[in-house]
Specification:
The protein is of the alpha+beta class. The chain has a single domain, classed as Nuclear Transport Factor 2, Chain: A. It has 4 helices and 6 strands, in the order H-H-E-E-H-E-E-E-E-H. It has helices at about 5-15, 20-25, 50-60, 125-130, and strands at about 25-35, 45, 65-75, 80-90, 95-110, 115-120. Strands 2-1-6-5-4-3 form a 6-stranded mixed β-sheet. Strand 5 (about 95-110) and strand 6 (about 115-120) form a beta hairpin. The chain is globular and about 40 Å long.
């Protein structure tokens, strides 16, 4: 296992279940790209510890019984890079709707910390669970 794949596994394990522990994994200059989040009115990029922790805290507070499963890790030739595919499922507290998602996550590490995440997910699934509009979608 590489540094990055180990961090990616810990990211998935602790993001929701032990967010305080998760916060110890991230670097101060972290950049988290959420390619499809703007369709939900969320930012495409979160820059720095404060923004990233704020977003993660929002997510943890918005879901109940959220669990990741079927984690598949792909270490890259560069030990500071890794990719994962993972499924997630939980209840959105505000809507009482089940949220099921497939994620692809790219991670870069530096000095043993997560410094970059790029996350891909289906915004339609998220919008349905959150009872949110998909921005830019013509009626």
């Amino acid at each position: 296992m590489t540094v990055a794949s180990d961090l990616l596994q810990k990211h998935i394990k602790t993001l929701v279940d032990d967010n305080a522990q998760w916060q110890t994994l991230i670097g101060d200059e972290i950049l988290w790209e959420l390619a499809y989040a703007p369709a939900l009115g969320h930012p495409a990029r979160l820059s720095g510890r404060e923004e990233v922790v704020r977003h993660a805290t929002w997510f943890v507070g918005a879901v109940q019984n959220f669990r990741f499963s079927d984690l598949r890790l792909y270490p890259l030739a560069d030990p500071e890079g890794a990719v994962a595919e993972v499924k997630g499922e939980g209840l959105i507290k505000a809507t009482q709707r089940i949220y099921q998602q497939d994620y692809v996550v790219f991670l870069r590490a530096k000095d043993g910390k997560i410094v970059f995440l790029r996350e891909y997910f289906d915004p339609v699934r998220a919008a349905k669970a959150l009872n949110a509009q998909i921005l830019g979608l013509e009626s």
